[in-house]
Specification:
By secondary structure, the protein is α/β, with parallel strands linked by helices. It folds into two domains: about 190 residues, 3-Layer(aba) Sandwich (Rossmann fold), CATH 3.40.50.2000; about 190 residues, Glycogen Phosphorylase B (Rossmann fold), CATH 3.40.50. The chain is about 45% helix and about 15% strand. It has 18 helices and twelve strands. A six-stranded parallel beta sheet has the order 2-1-3-4-5-6, with helices on both faces. β5, α7 and β6 form a beta-alpha-beta unit. The longest helix has 21 residues. It starts with 16 loop residues before the first strand and ends in a 7-residue tail after the last helix. About 45% of the residues are buried.
Length: about 400
Amino acid sequence: MTGRDRAEPPPTAPQQSRIFIVAGEPSGDVIGAEIMAALIAQSPQPITFAGIGGPRMAALGLKSEVAIDALSVFGAFELIPQLWRIRQILQQTLTAIAGFQPDIVLTVDSKGFSFALAKRLAARRGSALVPRLMHVVAPTVWAYRPERARKIAAFLDHLLVLFPFEPGYFTIHGLLTNFIGHPAADRQLGNGKRFRASHDFAPDVPILGLFPGSRRSEVQRLLPDFLAAAKILSARYERLKIVLPTVSAVMDHVQHAVQASDLDITVLPDVDDKSDLFAGIDLALAASGTVTLELALAAVPSVVAYRLHPLSALIALRIVDLSAVVLSNRILGRAVQPVFLQKHCTPVNLASALKTFLEAPDAATQAAAIAAELRQLLRQGDPELHGTAAAAANFVLAELAGGNALRT
């Protein structure tokens, strides 16, 4: 019998990988969905997902174990009343992981919940099979408590970071850490004319964007000052228009506050793609966080503000490097976005800083130069891995290809 005469072996089904992915807040849902899409596109074999996520991850087939807003808690003293519920969710998640038997548990941001989950899984090493534990978005050890890097290295297997200066904080403790770039640097600039036309704004009117955050605690503390600052500016600049993007989790509070303010504000619910919005506004007032970096990359002159719960602030002000609070300032090593924290976060201070941008003839030119500098620093260097999600997916697939991802 020749080789041609031999019966061909039946085709074998491709091996299927299992990834349990956890994103506990809206920004993590965006990153998680982008990584899921990249994994689906790049993987040579089928991948089954389970975990916790929001609407974007659900659109890619993830059936979330719990609602994502149940984990969107910020600040030590906001967390205390929710501890019992979060412990319940943690146990529910551990049970789901045991049933799903993933090759990798991939957590995205939400460090409090993500690391509590990873610690409990890592504690089982030696007595049970444990998935590889990967995390995306490092804690800001460069801003406060750098000793956390050593503790994190004790339970994670692989950390993917968004800023080029971060790996050294963790690799010194033996944790495999890779820079994947920042997703905001990948995004295309939007069409400002399209945004203005879709909301009936004239091409030449100045537009102020208000970004008070996506967590209810943030909005409750910041929005009154943001609205009061906007009122001061509206009285001085009669042609000024104001837009306020928000998310469904805080929509009721935002709408009530806007109505009570007696200001003419265009509320934009659940904006899927902010690129046109950023391109259409002239300046912004934003809560400290990722949005401030997104605004800087979009060349929007911006003022940054933040308030913590007073007791949380007492702790934070003792341990936080305030020069590192605003990401664009930390990356560039100079103050390109003015910031007002706690008692300095007043309507008069915020309005005064915004007024400077409104009246500076070169504000837009300076913002464009800052954006170009940031974009160059925040892009992943390897041309074969262009894009944060693609780079992250590449490292996840490398973990899967490393043999049996379960280890004792």
